[in-house]
Structures are given as structure tokens and as C-alpha cells.
Amino acid sequence: MKNLYLNNRFFYTLICVGVLYVFAFFFPFFMVIAHVVLLLCALTAIVDYLLLFNQKNGILAQRILPEKLSNGDENPVKIDIKNNYSFKINAKIIDEIPFQFQKRDFLIQKQIEPGKNSFFQYILEPKERGEYYFGNLNIYVESPIGFVSKRFQFQKDANLPSYPSFIHLRKYELMAIQSEFMLGGIKKIRKLGHTMEFEQIKEYVPGDDIRTINWKATSKTNRLMVNQFQDEKSQRIFMLIDTGRTMKMPFNGLSLLDYSINATMALSHIILKKGDRAGMMTFSKKTENKIAADNKSGQLKKISEALYNINTNFFESDFNRLYQDVKYSINQRSLILLFTNFETLDALNRQLKYLRGIAKNHLLVVVFFKNSELQTLIHKNPENMQEIYDEIIAEKFEFEKKLIIQELRKYGIYTVYTLPENLNIDVINKYLEIKARGIL
Q1: What is each CA distance from 176 to 45, 231, 262, 280, 435, in whole angstroms?
Q2: Strand order in the sheet with 277-283
Q3: What's the short name of a Pfam family annotated to this entry (predicted)?
Q4: Which CATH architecture has domain 169-191+232-437?
Q5: pTM recorded for the entire structure
Q6: Rounded distance between C-alpha atoms, residue 440 and residue 376, angstroms
Q7: With the CA atoms of 313, 314, 319 and 324 taken in that order, what torsion angle do they form, in degrees rounded to the nearest 10?
Q8: Residue 124: CB partners within 8 Å, gap ≥ 6?
Q9: Angstrom distance (rounded) from CA 134 to CA 156
Q10: Structural domain boundaries of the chain?
Q11: From CA 247, how far away is CA 439, in angstroms rounded?
Q12: I need a labelling partner for 101 at 20 to 30 A (CA). Which of 227, 231, 284, 358 fits?
């Protein structure tokens, strides 16, 4: 009986019976009608109960989950329900989704024909890494009578980890196949010169750069021959992620740290596709989660596991410690992408000497963030004095960010200044630009 539930239709019918009894108090001939309706209501409820509970496996259902959730992305959760009853049913699906989503009004209603399957899905978008626990898949089934419902429960206690964003890796893979972006909203990159990695000597065809003509090979073969070069491979690319307090700022539900982690995952995939070596480390009071730069087959999985297990804190990041660890652990010249955030020029000046120290031996790219809320204030047409003040303050902060970019460029440090939601594309674009220009 614990799976038996009375529906609103049953109680509405009882209310009608009650009204008839009230009328019977004034008009006695309504008493017989009230008794008959009450008896029919009881018999109908019994018949409805027998229809639903006479068959043990009236429906079969399963929740189809992915192996893991992709943090910050839309993850489909599929449900398959089969109706084994001989009549059409109305099903109410209440899935006990993880508490992190704080969705307390989850309800899906479906009508399923006898002997048929109903296959549908809903979307979950996690905003933090970690373990996500699913409870019961509850399905409440009604017959066409609709007086009572029977509850079915399936797949209790499923558990899924939420990893850094991996769903869109195939989309970014196109960026590794070609060295120029052809997608909308992304600038093209003009190649400057040649890399120094020689590939082969081939016969000249119209359109080849005449500056690459190999005159020795031409004299031997009596045909114009040119040198062909390829992009340099096996270059070391390190991603350094600041896990300090400045990375706690949230935008659209994700912190700057999680945006950086997702970008590191996407960029690592592209780096490995391009034949380079990807490595990473995190830092705050000390450096952690160190992954040496490599391009072996299991490198992306190793980076993914390290990103998943990043623990955050509210400490002030120690750039001096970072400089020392980079100096002694990264011996060869590498491309270093540093994910951090500077809100003021004073904050940059406190750490500038350490950044300059890293840039002496490596190609350093500092990745920091635009405040999307300030951008909204800047581009908003003010309607009153308060909004004018807000716009002026926002423009002051934006101007200070531009001063930060100029100060870094003065010492040969490259920058990526981007909105959090555009981070993946912008850092991949900067990496491919550096590869195309051959400045590493």
C-alpha cells in the first residue's frame, strides 16, 4: 500500500458527493443520489486500483547517464519508459537529481500508449566539479480513470563525477587541423615567415614561395626544387593556474578558476593534437598538481584527473614561490600560459618582478579577465545620475585593465584579456597565433 496514492480527481469526486449530502439536508430526495454516487466512486476507485496493482511490472524504466558530467556544459540525461499495461497510461516522472542543482520542482508528464516505449531527455548543467549523487527515479502511473496512482521506483543511488569541460573538445579539434580560424567571430591569423623545422625538398609548383628555392637541388635535377617546412612540434607548453582568492569571482555560476580549468582542458587537447607537449601546475601558497610536459597517449587523461582534483582556497597567491618553482622545474624554454586575475595596476606591480623573471627564460602569456558586469555598465545608456556615476567608475576600472596590458607588453609579456565565456576560444587562438608566427 505504500506505493498507492490518491489523485485530485478522487478528492474532487468526494467533494461533489459532499455537496450532494448538503443538498440532501434541505431536499431529502438528493440523499439517494448521494448514496449512489458515493457507491460508484468507491467501486471506481477499487477498479482503478485493481487495474494498476494487478500487474507487478506494469512499466519498466531506466535512467541513462553519461560516464561523467562536463562542468559548465549542458549534459543530457535520458529516460526510457516502457508501458506493459494493456491501456494508455499517464506517467508523472520525478527524478531525484543531485542537490547541487537545487531544482525542487522537477516534473515531467508523459502519455504512453499500451506496449509502447517513451524515450526522452532533460538537461543538467553543473557549475562545480565534484561528485553528483542521483536518488530514485520515481514514476507515478495513472490509468484513464485517474482516481489512484501507483508509484514505481528505479535505479536508486547513482553517482557521477563532474570533470572539467570535455563535451566541446571535438569542436575545438578543428582548430588543430588548420592553423587559421574559419569559425564566426574568431579572427584569422596571418602566418609570418617560416618555421625552422625542415620537412622535405619537393619540385616547385606555381604559388610556392620563390625564397625557398633550393639552388643546389635545382642544379642537380635540372628542375626548380624548393624546401618545404612544417610547424615545429614537441614544443613544451605549460599552463599555470592561480587557485588563490582572486580566482573565486563567479560569472554565470562558474568561478574564474573553473573557467580557467575548462580552458586548460580544451587547450591541452589542441596542444596534443598539434604534436606539442602539454603540462600544467597550480599555485597559491605553494605549487601543486604538477604534470610534466609530454605528448604521450595518456597525457590528456592525466591532466584531466589533475584538474578534477584541484582544491581551492582563499589565500593570497605567492608569485615568488611560483617563480622559484618554474625556474628549477622548467629547464627548457617553453610557452607558459598563466591564468590569473589582476584588478588594479598596483596588484600587478607587486608581482611584476616575478613575471619578468619568468619571461626572461620563457615565452609568457598572462591570461586575465574582463568583468562582464562592468562591460554591461559601460555600454549601457545612463538614465539618471546614479547610472552616470556607475558608468564612470566602470570605465575607470576598464582603463586600469588597459594600463595593465601596456605594462606587461613593455617587458615583452603577451596577454589575453577576455570575457570568461570567451576564454576557451581566445587562449586557443593565442596559442595558434604564436605557433603560426614561430616566435616560440
Answers
A1: 65, 12, 17, 19, 11
A2: 287-294, 277-283, 236-242, 335-339, 363-369, 414-418
A3: DUF58
A4: 3-Layer(aba) Sandwich (3.40)
A5: 0.75
A6: 36
A7: -30
A8: 69, 74, 75, 77, 97, 101
A9: 7
A10: 1-163, 169-191+232-437, 197-230
A11: 29
A12: 284
Q: If you classify domain 1-163 with CATH, what class do you get?
A: mainly beta
Judge whether 1-163 and 169-191+232-437 match in fold.
no
Pairing mode, strands 236-242 and 335-339: parallel
Give, for all 440 residues of the chain, the pLDDT tens digit. Answer: 788 999 999 999 999 999 999 988 888 888 888 899 999 999 999 999 999 998 888 999 999 998 889 888 889 999 999 999 999 999 999 999 998 888 888 899 999 999 899 999 999 999 888 899 998 999 999 999 989 999 999 877 788 898 888 877 777 776 556 544 444 444 444 444 445 555 678 888 887 778 888 888 888 888 888 887 655 567 899 999 999 888 888 888 888 999 999 999 999 999 988 888 999 999 988 888 899 998 888 899 999 999 988 877 778 889 999 999 999 888 888 999 999 998 888 989 999 999 999 999 999 999 999 887 777 777 778 778 887 888 888 888 888 889 999 999 999 999 999 998 889 889 998 998 888 777 87
C-alpha dihedral (181, 187, 188, 189), degrees to nearest 10? -100
The x, y and z cell numbers of residue 316, run together, are 593570497
As given in the structure block, the three cell numbers for residue 54 are 494487478
